[in-house]
Amino acid sequence: MKYLKIRHYISVLLSEGTRWEFEDILNGGVNLTDRQIKRYSWRKRYLLFVPVMILVLILKKGINSECIGYAIAALSIFIGLFASLIITMYGRYLQIPRLPPTANNDQKIEDKKVRNFIRQFTFVTGKNLLVATVIIALMSLILILPEYMSINVFESKFISSNN
């Protein structure tokens, strides 16, 4: 049961992170519709596929384990710094005093901008931290299981069965 809650929170983090990535907090609206956001995310995802395939073709023996170690160290530093920054921002968010009901519209707009900025920062950074954590886990698998990860795709033969 707790596993389902974790999956729920991860999906909320990813969807809200993507939504807040395109939120225009200064003008008080979203620049793109949900459909445009999904289309942009799809394009970004598949455009990243092209350089990965080029790297697979160029680096037939894979990435050096030292390079993987450096990437893991850099991502770990990124996670450590930004996780503490998210915690600090959340503390600041809780310290923002609520406006009295008699506040004028300019004060309410400024208060909403500050709160939306903190939400945007938290969700987008949280999404990036989650992606960095997944990348670290996958790169660690490459270091832990080198015999399974060093398969040369170009030496493989695919056999089709004709019935």
Describe it for me?
The chain is mainly alpha-helical. The protein has one domain (2-155). Helix content is 73%, strand content 2%. It contains six helices and two strands; from the N terminus they run H-E-E-H-H-H-H-H. Strands 1-2 form a two-stranded antiparallel ribbon. Strand 1 (23-24) and strand 2 (29-30) form a beta hairpin. Helix 1 packs across helix 5 (105-144) and helix 4 runs antiparallel to helix 5. The chain is elongated and about 75 Å long. The protein starts with a helix and ends in a 14-residue tail after the last helix.
Q: How is the secondary structure organized here?
A:
Elements: H1 2-21, E1 23-24, E2 29-30, H2 34-47, H3 49-58, H4 65-95, H5 105-144, H6 146-149
Antiparallel strand pairs: 1-2
Brief summary:
Helices cover 73% and strands 2% of the residues. The chain contains 6 helices and 2 strands; from the N terminus they run αββααααα.
Instruction: Supply Rg.
Output: 22 Å
What structural class do helix, strand and pairing data support? mainly alpha
Please describe the biggest sheet, giving its number of strands, its sense, and whether it closes into a barrel. 2 strands, antiparallel
Number of helical elements: 6
**Mean pLDDT metric:** 81
Order of strands in the sheet with most strands: 1-2
Total domain modules? 1
Instruction: Indicate the overall shape.
Output: elongated
**Strand residues, percent:** under 5%
Order of helices and strands: HEEHHHHH
Total number of beta strands: 2
Uncertain residue segments: none
Helix content: over 70%
N-to-C span: 45 Å
